[in-house]
């Protein structure tokens, strides 16, 4: 089945700096790659997603890049703000349409 | 538009008991999927229902079951509870399912003593 690895597990950045989280996947048939943000006491919230036929997607301060050949995808957050502090999860759907999540990255933005 | 509603928010059970969790999806969403979240194993897929039919199933024992009603509301049941079943159980709804564009509820925190 699909295996998704996510790095780093924790990331501390100064407000205004950029944050990058990287994920790799194993199933070459995977074709959908979402990113979720989870705040304390809440369920994960979809922040951006990308399909395998697209190399990059941007939404305001958030961007995702996908390298199908290398089987890795990354989340980029620019001009970080304290409200960006949360746990971020990458995920990939396997060939059966099941979503496999990475282990998560705790992002802390310090003022 | 109301979000995904899960009840109850917290549950405390003892080993051997069974439990039923409830999920009301966003209006118009026909797919409901369930996930287990623990500090050690992270987010793991349990199953997905679409129009009252189970469409996908994760690698969990048969003690974990679910169903979906004609109004798309879903329940999951865990029988013969074990200590290791303590977790946050999350429900997510979507228009198309298959893991795409999920809207999660806040979850049910289950503690098994």
If you had to describe this structure to a student in words, what would you say it looks like?
The complex is a heterodimer of chains A (111) and B (113). Chain A has 111 residues and is mainly beta. Chain A has no helices and eleven strands. In chain A, the strands form two sheets. In chain A, strands 2, 4, 5, 9, 10 and 11 form a six-stranded mixed beta sheet that branches. A five-stranded antiparallel beta sheet of chain A has the order 1-3-8-7-6, with no helix packed on it. Chain B has 113 residues and is mainly beta. Chain B is globular and about 35 Å long. Chain B starts with a strand and ends with a strand. The chains are: A mainly beta (111), B mainly beta (113).
- Overall spatial form of chain A: globular
Largest inter-chain contact set: A-B, 22 and 23 residues
The Cα radius of gyration of chain B reads 13 Å
Helices and strands of chain A: which structural class? Answer: mainly beta
What is the averaged pLDDT score of chain A?
96
Give the quaternary arrangement of the chains. heterodimer
Number of alpha- plus pi-helical segments of chain B:
0
Beta-strand fraction estimate of chain B: over 45%
Strand content of chain A: over 45%
Instruction: Write down the secondary-structure element order of chain A.
Output: EEEEEEEEEEE
How many beta strands in the DSSP annotation of chain A? 11
How confident is the prediction overall: mean pLDDT of chain B? Answer: 96
Residue runs with pLDDT of under 50 for 5 or more positions of chain A: none
**Helix fraction of chain A?**
under 10%
As a whole number of angstroms, the C-alpha radius of gyration of chain A is 13 Å
């Amino acid at each position: 089945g699909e295996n998704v690895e996510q790095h780093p597990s924790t990331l501390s950045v100064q407000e205004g700096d950029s944050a990058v989280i990287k994920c790799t996947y194993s199933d070459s048939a995977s074709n959908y790659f979402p990113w979720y943000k989870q705040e304390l006491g809440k369920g994960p919230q979809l922040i951006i997603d990308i399909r395998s036929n697209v190399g990059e997607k941007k939404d305001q301060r958030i961007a995702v890049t996908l390298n199908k050949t290398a089987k890795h995808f990354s989340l980029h957050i620019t001009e970080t703000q304290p409200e960006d502090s949360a746990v971020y999860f990458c995920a990939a759907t396997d060939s059966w349409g099941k979503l496999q999540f990475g282990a998560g990255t705790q992002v802390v933005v310090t003022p | 538009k109301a979000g995904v509603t899960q009840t109850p928010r917290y549950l405390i059970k003892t080993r051997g008991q069974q439990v039923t969790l409830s999920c009301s999806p966003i209006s118009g969403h026909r797919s409901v999927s369930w996930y287990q979240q623990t500090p050690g194993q992270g987010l793991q897929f349990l199953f997905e229902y679409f129009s009252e039919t189970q469409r996908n199933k994760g690698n969990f024992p048969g003690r974990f079951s679910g169903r979906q009603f004609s109004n798309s509301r879903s329940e999951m049941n865990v029988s013969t509870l074990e200590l290791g079943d303590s977790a946050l159980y999350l429900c997510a709804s979507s228009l198309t399912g298959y893991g795409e564009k999920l809207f999660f509820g806040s979850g049910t925190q289950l503690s098994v003593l």
